[in-house]
Design goal:
Number of strands of chain B: 0
Largest interface: A-B, 19 and 20 residues
Strand order of the largest sheet of chain A: 5-4-1-2-10-9-3-8-7-6
Structural class of chain A: alpha/beta
Helix content of chain B: over 70%
Oligomer: heterodimer
Number of helices of chain A: 12
CATH architecture of chain B: Up-down Bundle
Order of helices and strands of chain B: HHHHHHH
Distance between the termini of chain A: 42 Å
CATH architecture of chain A: 3-Layer(aba) Sandwich
CATH class of chain A: Alpha Beta
Largest sheet of chain B: none
Strand content of chain A: 25-35%
Order of helices and strands of chain A: HHEEEHEEHEHHHHEHEHEEHH
Number of domains of chain B: 1
Strand content of chain B: under 5%
CATH topology of chain B: Methane Monooxygenase Hydroxylase, Chain G, domain 1
């Protein structure tokens, strides 16, 4: 046997993907994060590290808090009346929820794409250029639009009809347009909240290929209901579940967070095993 | 939840236990034919291998279909993979029984000296015991018991080595040398069955712990 063959299967699985991330690669350090909507706790005490140029997936049943959690990363919960976020999310050493942090600047650097494609009722070009113009980045607007559309693997399909209305695109194309819109303002992190749930398998496959390309430049966090999708594209996977409180209220909890291959081959927690094997959850 | 999937997995596990029963029967019959110098019984063992192969293919297809349609993960995936590997090890055990039957036929009508036959029967019963331990520990998800297979395997290995001395003691005539070579091949077949039982034990440990490791590693002895 060679030295490689002598390694345990887990070591081999680890080396066959990517080297272990180091401290310097931490983009987000989440510490004791809790979210309440009014008096009801939606998410309980989450600690987690998100690493640079990796895809991190959040999976779990409905109501487990995974969408609530991803919305904390760019302060989208600020927009919900009664939402209260406690604990810390440290982004490149800076607490996102500290006094004086501008949520608009946070959302520029940490972009988000939603479940249903939501292009503006404008041309393809104006959709991509929208955020750029709002930020006053006027230099080489055409170049920015083209780069973003190319990065989103959409340029070849739309470059001859940039002035057509974005609603004329297919669902999968609209979602890639929304990704292009997000990329046009040079974000650092892309948050994807179930980006493929409204798409057919071919469009889903195109988005998954795109995510694999984009992670070379960006840090990607994705919420998905499709466990196979997490298995296919994510480097790390977090499983969230629901705990029922004595008063009957349901609170989301982080059960397990590990390398994706560990979660899908040999999870540490019986609740994770039950969910990924489809037995309960 | 996922009842169809669970019943499919249960069915495959039952089939692999049936496969093991077929192998135990092939081994038992091969040893009986050897003991009684019975060519016709040896032919039966050889013919029975077609049934074993049919069962092997049915399990392979079942696992392939289950993986393709149900996409098992975690413990379910490990079980499907363990069934696939155990099935192959069992099929090899059955092939060794065919080899023993063929060598029995080649040694007709004289057969082997009683001293050698006794050694084969002793080794063979040890191999049967190993197969039973391997499949019981798989059924019970008992990794600790699976690891005891290495101790049992050492006994077969020792008997295999001891057999060479008995062969040499058989004399230097051409007939004695031919019989001796066949005896060594039979001994080797039984010794390999023990190795396959150890391989099955390793699959049980993989199933239980999620870690694959060889119980013993000849190229890197501890």
């Amino acid at each position: 046997m060679t030295d490689l063959e002598r390694k345990t299967s887990e070591e081999v699985a680890a080396t066959s993907t990517e080297a272990a991330p180091e401290e310097a690669d931490i983009v987000f350090e989440v510490e004791g994060l809790r979210v309440h909507y009014g008096s009801k706790q939606a998410l309980k005490d989450v600690d987690m590290r998100i690493y640079r140029n990796r895809v991190t997936a959040f999976i779990g049943p409905s109501g487990c808090g995974k969408s609530t959690f991803i919305r904390c990363f760019n302060r989208m919960n600020d927009l919900i009346v009664g939402a209260k976020v406690e604990g810390r999310i440290v982004y490149h050493g800076e607490d996102l929820y500290a006094n004086g942090v501008d949520p608009v600047e946070v959302r520029r650097r940490i972009g988000m794409v939603f479940q249903k494609p939501n292009p503006f009722p404008k041309s393809i070009y104006d959709n991509v250029a929208f955020g750029v113009r709002v930020l006053g980045l006027k230099d080489d607007l055409d170049g920015r639009v083209e780069r973003a559309l190319r990065q989103a693997a959409l340029w070849e399909e739309v470059h001859q009809r940039l002035n057509d209305n974005a609603f004329g695109l297919s669902g999968g194309q609209q979602q890639r347009l929304c990704i292009a819109r997000c990329l046009a303002i040079d974000p650092d992190v892309i948050l994807l909240d179930e980006p493929c749930s409204a798409l057919d398998p071919i469009s889903t496959s195109a988005i998954e290929d795109l995510i694999d390309q984009l992670k070379k430049q960006y840090t990607i966090v994705i919420v998905t209901h499709n466990m196979q999708q997490a298995g296919r594209i994510a480097d790390h996977t977090a499983f969230f579940s629901v705990e029922t409180q004595p008063d009957g209220h349901r609170t989301g909890v982080l059960v397990e967070y590990d390398r994706t291959n560990k979660i899908f081959t040999n999870p540490s927690d019986a609740r994770t095993e039950g969910y990924v094997t489809g037995r309960f959850g | 939840m996922r009842e169809e999937f669970q019943s499919g997995l249960d069915r495959l596990e039952r089939m692999v236990q049936e496969m093991s029963d077929m192998c135990a029967r092939a081994l038992h019959d091969a040893l009986a034919a050897l003991q009684s110098h019975d060519g016709a019984s040896a032919d039966d063992v050889i013919a029975f291998d077609d049934d074993v192969d049919g069962h092997f293919i049915a399990i392979e297809r079942g696992v392939e279909e289950l993986i393709a349609t149900q996409a098992p993960v975690a413990g379910d995936l490990r079980l499907a993979l363990a069934i696939l590997h155990i099935n192959l090890h069992l099929e090899r055990i059955a092939d060794q029984c065919v080899n023993i039957a063929k060598l029995t036929k080649l040694s007709e009508p004289v057969g082997f000296r009683p001293q050698l036959v006794d050694a084969f029967v002793e080794m063979g019963s040890r191999a049967e015991q190993m197969l039973r331990v391997a499949m019981d520990s798989f059924a019970n998800r008992d990794a600790e018991r699976a690891e005891t297979l290495t101790d049992l395997d050492e006994l077969i290995d020792e008997e295999n080595k001891a057999l060479s001395r008995k062969v040499i003691a058989g004399g230097t005539s051409v007939e004695a040398q031919e019989a001796g070579l066949r005896a060594m091949l039979i001994s080797r077949c039984i010794e390999r069955i023990g190795d396959n039982a150890v391989d099955i034990g390793e699959q049980t440990v993989f199933l239980v712990t999620g870690e694959f490791r060889e119980f013993t590693d000849a190229s890197h002895p501890s």
